[in-house]
Write a structure and sequence with these properties.
The chain has eight helices and no strands. The chain is mostly helical and 215 residues long.
Amino acid sequence: MPSKTKTGLWPRVVLGAASMASGGALLAYFLTGTPLHIALAATVGLGVGAWVVVWRALPAAARKALAQRARIGLLVGLCATAAYDVSRWLLVETTGSTVRPFDAWPLFGELLGAGDRTTTSALVVGFAFHLVNGLGFAVGYTIVLAEKGVIAGIIWALVLETVMVSFYPGWLGLKALDEFISVTVFGHFAYGAVLGWLARALVRRSREREPAWKG
């Protein structure tokens, strides 16, 4: 059996939070009005700094385990974000909802300086920002809570849903609020279920090849 190195909870919490820098930038934009591109530069800078400081303080075995968790988080995040988007689209298509689930993407692009929201460049940049958010939330979850399972993943996703519903309706000028909440809850439920199930499955598969994590 390989030697085991235990890594405490707080380093994982710090790195999990640092992995969600793009989400922090969006929250700063909503709460303070800071231009999104400036907020993003600031939060990413802080996130990278946190990773560097904590990474240097960890022993080599813990770094290896952390890197493995981060890689798993990226893969899980890709799958969970796809589930989120596909499930919302399917719900809208099958119910005839008036909600347009992807309207936020070009707005993100516009806020990030990619041009007017009607342009293709704004849509592409906005989608990239959306994807980075989905990946970042998944990496943060996987570093801290990966082995907790499906219920934990769904709870995590519903926390994200609560934050989203607190700001998006007013920002997007939505009138069909009930429809919007139904679509986003459905999407976040799918995101959380995939996140919780897949993160635990992949971490368990890699457990014998990585140092133990405390907590």
